[in-house]
Design goal:
Radius of gyration: 24 Å
Number of strands: 0
Distance between the termini: 11 Å
Number of helices: 21
Helix content: over 70%
Length: 504
């Protein structure tokens, strides 16, 4: 009885809706498809264990009132019956949610990544240098990322719909107020802080809402959703260039605020899906020290109680390291290419090619992660390691065709890595912990993204070699790949431990 109870406490719940009867609950727990989709183990030993135990629990001699295992298995039968339709629809309206989330990511990331279009007009009107104006864009990315911690908590408590709607209204208001800015202080408050908070409240709900509406095609749907980031960068850059030449930066901010207001409608389309909270074991005693209270505020009590916490922390560390290198080529590759004889226009197109190929990689990653033979942890480690190759080769080439080919390859590989993050978290932690885990990782990504380019710039200034920035990015990617492999080994070790306990 001890080992049975231990297994049920350690395994993440593969269900998304609590069914009325105990028989239906046990059938759903045995379903291999549901087990795979929501991160629990789909192993022969695990399924056979359930087959054996179901027979034991159905026999009269094991159905005593004092049998703790019977109470644990039939706990769901004590709650009011719910319709099976309250679970994830796995399609249907879920594709509307995918389209809504795609548009939200297209708008918020498109506006964030194209802030460089506003540098020249803002420098002229604000009478400020390039460093001061660019700080407004960097500060917005930092606020956007750190707000994801709060956004994740709000999504877990209230659902994606209200959080996304409030975020869209906040971002729209921030951009409209930013159009009236008269100095850098007012621009930092309106564009960087208010708009950054709004974007942070939009991002997490957009991804989590898609994950909640799918089971068998969950990874593919998330891959399509996160393509909005690359497409937004590709589409909004020429749109903003046209608006800036016709109406100026103030009315361009107002137009971008109008796009954010349209995201209110998209947020309203993110219908709630009934979720069950997995039994992750006894809650931790968080009253022991101030340190544990602080950690619980950052990670959430549910995440701290997860038996896969060590694996998750390794994944977060690897993702943070890789994010340091991700934005370095976006900043330094055009300068490196022009120094090798490539025209400025062709060098600028290298960034656009990264965005388009990244979108293709994200869709491919979503399709791949839905295959039963694909392990997202292995896929992520391989893609991050492979992404270091283009970075290390950039300083050695001088032909534009090679620059374009390697840029597309880098964008594709990093797109696969980024889109595989959510399926990896679902496999390790389960769907119910996706929101707090994804929020923490997004905050760490923002901090890492603000660290990588300045570090590479300082290295280039000291050594005087532009290629050192790309060498640094390639080396960082290699380190991240090794940490991802450690996370994979930790995950396999935990799975083996659970199988051994199941065989006892």
């Amino acid at each position: 009885h001890f080992y049975k109870r231990l297994i049920y406490q350690m395994l993440p719940s593969p269900t998304t809706a609590t069914l009325g009867g105990g028989k239906e609950s046990k059938c759903l727990l045995k379903s291999p498809g549901c087990v795979e989709a929501y991160g629990a183990l789909e192993e022969t030993g695990y399924d056979s264990f359930h087959d054996q135990e179901e027979g034991n629990y159905d026999t009269p001699q094991h159905c005593g009132v004092h049998d703790e295992n019977e109470n644990l298995l039939t706990k769901s039968s004590k709650s009011p019956p719910l319709d099976v339709s309250t679970g994830p629809p796995d399609g249907g309206w879920g594709w509307v949610v995918v389209a809504a989330s795609f548009f939200c990511l297209c708008v918020l990331d498109g506006i964030s990544y194209t802030f460089g279009m506003f540098l020249s007009p803002l420098m002229e009107d604000m009478e400020c240098g390039r460093g001061g104006v660019s700080a407004a864009g960097s500060f917005q990315v930092g606020v956007y990322s750190l707000t994801s911690l709060v956004s994740a908590r709000l999504v877990s408590k209230h659902g994606p719909r209200p959080v996304c709607v409030v975020g869209a209204l906040t971002a729209s208001a921030g951009l409209i107020v930013a159009s009236f800015s008269w100095n850098m202080a007012s621009l930092l408050v309106s564009y960087s802080f208010i708009t950054g908070v709004g974007f942070g409240l939009m991002y997490i709900p957009a991804v989590v809402a898609v994950a909640q509406h799918f089971t068998t095609k969950q990874a593919f749907a998330i891959g399509v959703c996160v393509c909005g980031s690359g497409m937004g960068t590709f589409i909004l850059a020429p749109v903003e260039h046209f608006l800036l030449s016709q109406v100026g930066w103030r009315w361009t901010f107002v137009c971008m605020g109008g796009l954010c207001w349209l995201c209110v409608i998209c947020g309203a389309a993110m219908t709630p899906v009934r979720q069950s909270v997995p039994d992750v074991g006894p809650a931790l005693d968080l009253s022991r020290s101030c340190f544990t209270k602080f950690i619980s505020m950052v990670l959430s009590e549910e995440l701290l109680s997860s038996p896969a916490l060590t694996t998750f922390l390794l994944i977060s560390l690897a993702d943070c390291i890789a994010s340091m290198a991700l934005y370095i080529p976006f900043t330094f590759l055009p300068d490196e290419a022009t120094h090798s004889g490539v025209s400025l226009e062709d060098a600028s197109f290298l960034i656009a090619s990264m965005g388009i190929s990244s979108s293709a990689g994200r869709i491919f990653s979503g399709w791949l992660c839905d295959r039963p033979w694909c392990n997202p942890a292995v896929l992520t480690a391989v893609m991050v390691a492979a992404a270091s190759s283009p970075l290390l080769l950039f300083p050695w080439i001088s032909h534009y065709v090679l620059y374009l080919s390697l840029s597309c390859l880098f964008g594709f590989l990093t797109g696969v890595w980024i889109a595989a993050t959510s399926p990896l978290l679902v496999r390790v932690l389960g769907l119910s912990l996706l929101s707090p885990a994804f929020g923490l990782m997004t905050a760490m990504q923002g901090a890492a993204a603000l660290t990588g380019p300045p570090l590479a710039g300082a290295l280039v200034d000291m050594a005087g070699d532009r290629g050192l920035a790309l060498y640094l990015a390639g080396g960082i990617m290699c380190v991240a790949a090794m940490v991802y492999m450690l996370a994979y080994l930790s995950m396999k070790k935990r799975e083996k431990k659970l199988r051994r306990v199941a065989q006892i």
